[in-house]
Automatic annotation (TrEMBL):
It comes from Halobacillus litoralis. Its EC number is 3.4.15.6. It comes from the Bacteria. This is Cyanophycinase. GO terms for molecular function: carboxypeptidase activity; peptidyl-dipeptidase activity; serine-type peptidase activity. The keyword rRNA-binding does not apply. Keywords: Carboxypeptidase, Hydrolase, Protease, Serine protease.
Length: 839
């Protein structure tokens, strides 16, 4: 780790840097004269993210008047610039009105021309005059230093091209950029480093960082200063950059402004005239207020965190927030959850990214007013992070894109305390582990079944055409649809799914919500608990027999089985009809609980850490058990006979409970499957194949080499694969076929760095499968990485290893977004004692 005293002594170049940064007061004196706007994107902008593209075109004057220039300088090739031009054309721009400007300080790898010669163009009158005719400028992603080196003179002064960009910006043009194109927007430009380096208060002003160091200092350079109300950082939540932004905002005082961290596929739209910042896109913008924070020794106290979602605004003059009416329910005093959250300590933590963790575990949870996480290197030196609610903390909730949760959070207090965390192997820790007492049901699956299954992992977006079209196509052109609402607490999700089907072209008269439930629904006059008798109604059973497609909505999976199985566990008449149409060729589908019921063994409750440490229970405490506790198993409906299904897999970190369930109940030569949110696993019974569709992935767990019992007592390795859209598995041969748009990363790894352990919500690429993709599979430096999950003095060390049959795959999807798959990562789980000391 870098020595902070040495850094402060050696890097006197900070004085040089400060002399180059434009005077904030000088810029602000003329801020009212800036008529233009900014669209600042956090990276990985999807071609399908129409809201961002349309907003940029609109601010440039609209499709008829806009003339857009693309600055390619940041990238290593022209591919991303050509992609952005194609995206502009897709959203209505005339090809002649979108051009790639010949501005670069380096050669591009995918052309025959030597573009290094373009550097001189920045000082040509012809270039400046041409820019003056444009109404929009877009900076593609890559290396932000290549942009500033292209547009700034060696003495830090503006080139003629940059002066021209400033001129059109002041006159009303829109400037935008993604990734590196976002980083250049503020005066203080964060060019490198991570959260560990930020919390270490380590800064550098020339690129001397070493990939051998897990704690990389924050690399600061001069930006272009188009954004005048604070400091901007990008790829924020995905790469967990809160530490480096906080340290930078503290060091450079920030003139009382907020600092902003923009997530991928998300944009800040800055109106200089209105003096507002609005969030658009698919994720969040972190707003950091350091005005009342202080550095205390090696720690930080009093950071103020807010998370804004689509439609939310900041008024930069009074620093107030306006929350979009889509999140019209304030959670404060009306919290939905009531559970004791575990500290966010690694890949077994539910809601493992920081905005999600704070939303579900803190502000919408009546049982918590403080939560904690950790960040440390492989020696254990790091920080304890505490997040507290105060009287100023507010949470806001609503639905987006169908029935996906959308949260905004304001004013959570964060404190950072230096600690040392040590782990010691101890096989004797979990002596109270309770083995599963669940009895496997007999499978009555007909191997000649012709139907198919669409099993969605939850939080299915209405805009996820890939999943909806897969369901509709299997129902047939004149298909009839039935929706089973039993899992939900209301009929809202059933009506929403019906509306979604209609939006994709299904005739409304061919869709019925079936009267099947074991409980009453809220917000209706009828007592739907009386519907329980309908499970054996011959008329309803006959009606079900005429359907081509059945969909189970999400909620509590035990309510579905209770509504369809008789009290003795036998099939009701309606369930018999479901089996008949399935065997004859109908498609059955479901999301969340509607996916959990598909296998013979149904996981109905429990968390990963608690299941690995405590085992299984025979009691069930309704939906509260979805957030933790030992695993609870019930008999499922058995439509999927090829293994065990789990859902909400990434967001609720359920790998531990699925592995623990598979160990005693998985059949020989079968796998278990964890389906991520907004993603579906499709079973084609006739082809005996599985296919992944949707926006995330499916984890495939192979425990065939394991001995029965607690998985951390096994003698052999656990194998983990991760499949994304287009990947397929042949159930007869067990061969996995990776979509042909991806190429192998083995021996062609893009990264080469020392990866710190996955330690919690500030770990870069915090979701397990992304962490493994970036830190292990596509990283030449590592052949194994570790994660630690613990509560108080007890926990687990998880080691993920590459072996000879391990392989990673990479490609682009939806524009220039990374798309990974991998096969056969080996996992070892070891109980450990945990010791945490302040330092």
């Amino acid at each position: 780790m870098y020595n902070r005293k040495w850094l402060l002594t050696v890097f006197v170049t900070v004085l040089t840097f400060l002399s180059l940064v434009p005077s904030v007061s000088a810029i602000k004196s003329g801020e009212e004269s800036i008529k233009g706007n900014l669209v600042i994107v956090g990276g990985a902008l999807g071609s399908s993210n129409g809201e961002v593209y349309k907003e940029f075109i609109s601010l440039a004057g609209g499709k008829e008047k806009a003339r857009i220039g693309i600055v390619p300088a940041a990238s290593g090739s022209l591919k991303s610039s050509h992609q952005f031009k194609e995206d502009m054309i897709t959203y209505g721009m005339d090809p002649s009105d979108v051009e790639i400007l010949e501005l670069s300080n380096h050669d591009f790898k995918d052309t025959e021309t030597n573009e290094r010669k373009w550097k001189s163009n920045a000082q040509k009158n012809q270039t400046a005059n041409h820019i003056q005719q444009l109404t929009g400028i877009w900076f593609v992603g890559g290396d932000q230093l290549k942009i500033t080196d292209t547009l700034l003179k060696p003495n830090g002064k503006n080139t003629k091209a940059l002066d021209a960009i400033w001129d059109i910006y002041q006159d009303g043009a829109v400037l935008g950029g993604t990734s590196a194109g976002a980083a250049i927007m503020s005066d203080v430009m964060i060019t490198g480093g991570g959260s560990l380096g930020g919390f270490d208060q380590s800064f550098i002003y020339e690129d001397i960082s070493s990939p051998d160091e897990e704690s990389v200092p924050v690399f600061i350079e001069k930006g272009l200063g188009f954004f005048q109300w604070g400091i901007v950082d990008q790829h924020f939540n995905e790469r967990s950059r809160l530490g480096r932004l906080a340290a930078t905002a503290l060091k450079y005082e920030n003139q009382g402004n907020y600092a902003y961290g923009i997530d991928e596929d998300t944009a800040m739209v800055v109106s200089n005239k209105k003096q507002t910042i609005e969030v658009i896109g698919r994720s969040t913008v972190t707003v950091l207020d350091v005005s009342h924070a202080a550095i205390e020794g090696e720690g930080i106290k009093g950071l103020d965190l807010s998370y804004l979602s689509e439609g939310d605004q900041v008024n930069v003059q009074d620093k107030s927030f306006q929350i979009d009416e889509a999140r019209d329910l304030e959670t404060t005093g009306y919290e939905y959850f009531n559970f004791d959250p575990l500290p966010a300590t690694g890949v077994l933590t539910s809601y493992g990214t920081l905005p999600n963790y704070l939303s579900y575990s803190l502000v919408d949870n009546a049982s918590a007013d403080k939560v904690e996480s950790y960040l440390y290197d492989s020696t254990g030196e790091g920080y304890e992070l505490t997040f507290e609610q105060t009287s100023d903390t507010k949470g806001y909730w609503g639905y987006e894109d169908g029935q996906k949760d959308s949260y905004s959070i304001t004013h959570v207090t964060m404190n950072v305390t230096p600690v040392n965390v040590q782990f010691k192997d101890n096989e004797e820790l979990f002596q109270d582990y309770q083995p599963s007492q669940f009895t496997m049901p007999d499978s009555s699956f007909n191997t000649d079944t012709k139907g198919s299954l669409i099993m969605a992992g939850g939080a299915l977006g209405s805009s996820n055409a890939e999943v909806y079209e897969a369901f509709i196509s299997r129902a047939g052109e004149d298909g009839k649809y039935g929706i089973i609402p039993a899992a939900s607490s209301s009929l809202k999700s059933s009506h929403q799914f019906r509306e979604d089907l209609i939006s994709y072209g299904v005739d409304s008269e061919k869709i019925e919500i079936l009267p099947l439930s074991n409980h009453d629904f809220k917000n209706t006059e009828e007592d739907e608990s009386q519907w329980l008798k309908n499970r054996n109604d011959e008329g309803l059973a006959k009606q079900v027999g005429s359907y081509d497609a059945i969909w189970f909505v999400g909620g509590d999976q035990t309510d579905i089985t209770a509504a369809l199985l008789n009290d003795d566990g036998s099939y009701s008449k309606v369930l018999e009809s479901l089996w008949t149409i399935y065997e004859e060729g109908a498609v059955l589908g479901g999301t969340s609980a509607g996916a959990a019921i598909m296998s013979d063994v149904m996981i109905a409750g429990g968390g990963s850490f608690d299941t690995l440490s405590k085992g299984f229970t025979i009691t069930y405490d309704s939906m509260s058990q979805q957030e933790g506790g030992p695993a609870y198993l019930e008999k499922g409906l058995g439509f999927f006979p090829y293994g065990i299904i789990d859902q909400h897999f990434d967001n609720k970190a359920r790998i531990g409970r699925l592995i623990a369930t598979d160990a005693p109940h998985g059949e020989k030569d079968e796998y278990s499957y964890g389906i991520d949110e907004d993603t579906a696993l499709i079973l084609d019974n006739k082809e005996k194949s599985l296919k992944v569709v949707g926006r995330a992935g499916v984890s495939v767990i192979d425990l065939n080499a394991q001995e029965e019992g607690a998985v951390w007592k096994g003698d052999e390795d656990i194998r983990l694969s991760w499949l994304t859209s287009g990947d397929q598995l042949n159930l007869d041969t067990k061969k996995i076929t990776i979509s042909d748009h991806k190429v192998t990363t083995t021996d062609y790894e893009y990264f080469d760095y020392e990866a710190a352990p996955h330690s919690g919500v500030l770990t870069p690429h915090a979701e397990l499968n992304k962490y493994l993709s970036y830190a292990l599979l596509d990283n030449a430096r590592e052949n194994q990485v570790k994660s630690y999950s613990f509560n108080k003095e007890k926990g687990f060390e998880l080691t993920f290893r590459e072996e000879e049959d391990t392989e990673g795959f990479w490609g682009y999807k939806d524009g220039n977004k990374d798309d990974y798959s991998f096969l056969n990562v080996y996992l070892d789980i070891q109980p450990v004692e945990v010791s945490i000391q302040n330092r």
